[in-house]
Amino acid sequence: LVCGGLGLIGREISKALAQAGSKVVLLDIDENEGQRFVENCRNENLAVEFYKFDITKTESYHHDLSKIVEIHGDFQIMANAAYPRTQDWGNGFEDMLDSSFKKNVEMQLSCVCYFTTKVAEYMRKNGIAGSVINLGSIYGVVGPDFGVYEGLPMTCPPAYGAVKGGIASFGRHAASYYGKFGIRINTVSPGGVFNGQDPKFVARYERKTPLQRMAQADEVASMVAFLASSAASYVTGTEIMVDGGWTSI
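Structure (tokenized):
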């Protein structure tokens, strides 16, 4: 399962797992775009299917997981790249609304943690030694350098660090509990991923990064594929940075 599989990183995770031999069920909310992506994958001989799923609808988790298993069979891997957010998500500290902060923490942190639990519980009850990988961020580990945003209509929202730090911390907590069932839970924390950002931002960001460039989405996906595989069979409860060295200095 790849939750948020139509996002910038989610698409690459879906392809990377399929290229490694997995049958992938992509979970996301846009059915039309999902079917287009599936067709493109099939043209590349990749086994990818789409299932309409909204991670913010926690009351539907049991039904959705049961339906996915009914249609596609058991799963051993769940990678979560879902990134739901409010329309004012890009606001900074000066414009932060209490209601918005709470809603984004609920959608981006609480839902990820709860879905992780539901997936891990399914694996436990069915004797599946599986792998769960969630996406964190460098800004769950270090604070942002707001200088890279100076003079630009973009910033790192106040809730972001709380969300991403919380995902990694919950991952360690869950890994400690589910390890005895053979279920591995890890966090991949990317640095900035290039997505056509303002050239000023890109230049500032790259100057601060030891590898002198932003990440490509497939470089994050390859780490997810590693953690999903038997090559990482003794890796659990960890947070792996894919950041070009940003957090090392």
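The chain has seven helices and seven strands. The first strand starts at residue 2 and ends at 3.
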